[in-house]
Amino acid sequence: MKKYTTCLKQIISVVLVVIILVGFVWISLLRINHRLDFTTLWGYRYRLWQGFKMTLIMAFASLFVSLFIGSVAAVAQKAKFLTVSYLAKFYVQVIRGTPLLVQIFFFFYIIGTAWGVDNRYVAGVLILSLFEGAYIAEIIRGGLESIDRQQFELAKAVGLTPAKTFRLVTFPLLMARILPALTGQFASIIKDSSLLSVIAIPELTQITQEISADNYRLFENYFFLGLLYFVMTFTVSLITRRLERKYKHENSSE
Amino acid sequence: MKIVLNKICKSFAGKSVLKNVCYEDDFKALAIIGPSGAGKSTLLRIIGGLLPPTSGELYLDGVKINFTEKELLSYRRTIGFVFQTKGLFEHLTALENVMLPLIHSLQLEKTEAEERAKQLFARFGLEREGYKYPHQLSGGQQQRIQIARAVAMKPKLLLLDEPTSALDPELTAEVLDMLGELQAEGLKTIIVTHEMGFAKRACEKVIFVAGGTIVESGDSAQIFTAPQTKALQAFLNKVLEWRP
Predict the structure, then answer these.
(1) What is the dihedral of CA B188, B192, B194, B199, to 10 degrees?
(2) What are phi and psi for residue B218, nearest 5 degrees?
């Protein structure tokens, strides 16, 4: 009975939240005398689908490359050779301290042109990965620092080689700690990829801009664009929550 | 087992922790006692090959131990080491903790490793703990599983670094009972301990370490009844002051 009433309360709350939010947007639209009309978007469904796929491709490719860059930067920060360590720290600070838009222009038009990176897809993935890699480096560094040093001494004491220590001890301990944060970062990559539109990569945002130049339905187009991004990030956040629960299950001290 | 420590010194970042430690004896069970911060754990880590000394030599049964990473790797596989606390891999169950070194250090087959681990768990009444993670185990259980993991590797020598200092008296007894049983079977041990009762009754040799060096050593019967040095007398008076 009690379970039933809490469930009912939850449903009512969800409905209320939806009514409040939709109502607010509705009233706002009435105040500016705009009637939403999504019907024109149907004609662009194929291009939108192409853009949706391109966004996913850019995000997935960047996820893998940024994981690599992030791992290298995290380890390099601890390097005994100071030049390497400073370089890694400088990279993380500068990237995290400047806007992605500035980085895209800088790397694409100056560095990319100078070194002959002509393929804008490759350039896009590299730039996005360089940006996200700095954040991932910090996640990994934090994860490594949170592991009790004695776990490594333990591995030594039972006679594991350094390679096996990494595979059997360091890696699983690190993953348990950083997986939730990494999946969260993946949601950021998806959103940040929208800025790649400035170098004309035909991903969702770029496609939406092109459609807008065609049908002049700016509000509807961007409204729908936001919805599509939300579908992607919400999926990732659901996965994150599941991973977090698993992580808690194995590490709660009760 | 014959052990020789020849002028062992250890310093961390210029700070000297062990100074000219010399010792030579034949022992079955050796206890290292002394005040906190005297260098007992550092000495034990050097003997266990976990820490290279800054200078000096170590011989076990006449064999010189070379402190190069390559030789230490195989040396550590012949020595068991039990840590003071948190000595289990936190991402593995109790059974997996015991099996991991059997499979990956001693190259045993998985079925053989599992069998050996399960036998030990059954013997020491740990069957119900096999599939638990370290955070689900009591401190005493964690220590007993650590000992089981070390013993499973059939070491020639078992080193224990204050294995009961974080436990209440009841759990302490449970760990020391297990240890006493293994010693009676002929397992050679060196234990750093604050349990004077255990050092006196279960270990026939004692080293007293203070200020980074061995101040006194000998048979435990003699050490506890007729301490020679002032430092040891003062130490024993202090630790035994509140004895029932």
Answers:
(1) 30
(2) 155, -165
Burial label, B29 (beta-carbon count in 10 A; 0-12, 13-18, 19+): buried
Of B30, B6, B21, B15, the closest CA to residue B212 belongs to B21
DSSP structure class, residue B61: T
Residue of B nearest to A154 (CA): B87
Range of the domain at B212: 2-84+158-239
- Identify whether B46 is part of a domain: yes
The region, left, alpha or beta by phi > 0 then psi within -120 to 50, assigned to residue B37 is left
Nearest to A161 among B48, B73, B91 (CB): B73
Is the pLDDT at A252 greater than 50? The verdict is no
Facing A159 at nearest CB: one of B77, B89, B133: B77
Which residue in chain B has the smallest CA separation from A163?
A: B104
Q: What is the pLDDT of residues B192-224, one digit of tens each?
A: 998 898 898 889 999 999 999 999 999 998 999
Tens of pLDDT, residues B40-56:
999 999 999 999 999 99
Cα end-to-end span (Å), chain B: 35
Instruction: Note whether B135 contacts A173, CB cutoff 8 Å.
Output: no
pLDDT bracket for residue A253 (50, 70, 90): very low
Q: What does R_g of chain B's alpha carbons equal in angstroms?
A: 18
pLDDT band at A250; cut points 50, 70, 90:
low
Q: Which chain B residues touch A148 with a CB distance below 8 Å?
A: 86, 90
CATH of the domain at B41: 3.40.50.300
- What is the domain count for chain B? 1
A21 by Cβ neighbours in 10 Å (0-12 / 13-18 / 19+) ranks as exposed
Tokens 């049908």 sit at which residue? Answer: A215
Q: Which residue of A has its CA nearest to B135?
A: A253
Q: Do A160 and B101 touch (CB under 8 A)?
A: yes
